[in-house]
């Protein structure tokens, strides 16, 4: 797990102007949702979008949704909110297991496939939170700076 993340019960922190977004079925749909939300905000505020920061946010969304699908029993909710200079991403799944970092090699010294998603999330995001959901499962909420 990220060294600075917290685990706590889930509490909604979304503004009243937030609209319900359809839950993506695949990581590509999550990437498009993030691109759309950020570019719409940039257009509305007439501020340029930082392409590198947007790329980071898209990558984090992709990794979180991929992990939910592969390791979390399936994606149960996805939210993206642009809040000032940041994008807040929340991904929920059916598992209560906390994310873990896997060693890149197994005990026999062979390189493992995968296992790099969570370290990417921890490196690019800040304010990483894992929350237990009342109905079971967990929600991972991260903030990715857009500047």
Descriptive account of the structure:
The protein is of the alpha+beta class. It has a single domain, classed as Heat Shock Protein 90. The chain is 33% helix and 24% strand. It is built from 3 helices and 5 strands. The protein is globular.
CATH class identity: Alpha Beta
Discrete helix count: 3
Mean pLDDT: 86
Spatial ordering of strands, largest sheet: 1-4-5-3-2
Helix-strand category: alpha+beta
Tell me the span between the first and last alpha carbons: 25 Å
How can the largest sheet be summarized? 5 strands, mixed
SS elements, strand count? 5
Instruction: Spell the H/E element sequence.
Output: EHHEEHEE
CATH fold annotation: Heat Shock Protein 90
CATH superfamily: Histidine kinase-like ATPase, C-terminal domain
- The radius of gyration computed from the alpha-carbon positions, rounded to a whole number of angstroms, is 15 Å
Overall domain count: 1
User: What is the second-level CATH architecture?
Assistant: 2-Layer Sandwich
In percent terms, what proportion of residues is strand?
A: 15-25%
Oligomer: single chain
Percent of residues in helical segments? Answer: 25-40%
Q: Report low-confidence residues grouped into runs of 5 or more.
A: 13-19
């Amino acid at each position: 797990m990220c060294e600075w993340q917290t685990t706590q019960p889930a509490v909604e922190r979304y503004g009243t102007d937030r609209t319900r977004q359809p839950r993506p079925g695949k990581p590509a749909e999550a990437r498009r949702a993030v691109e759309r939300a950020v570019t719409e905000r940039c257009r509305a505020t007439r501020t340029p979008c930082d392409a590198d920061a947007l790329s980071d946010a898209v990558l984090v969304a992709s990794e979180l949704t991929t992990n939910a699908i592969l390791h979390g029993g399936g994606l149960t909710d996805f939210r993206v909110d642009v809040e000032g200079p940041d994008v807040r991403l929340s991904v929920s799944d059916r598992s209560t297991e906390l994310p873990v970092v896997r060693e890149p090699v197994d005990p026999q010294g062979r390189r493992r496939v995968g296992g790099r998603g969570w370290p990417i999330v921890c490196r690019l995001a800040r304010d990483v939170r894992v929350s237990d959901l009342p109905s079971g499962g967990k929600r991972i909420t991260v903030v990715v700076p857009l500047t």
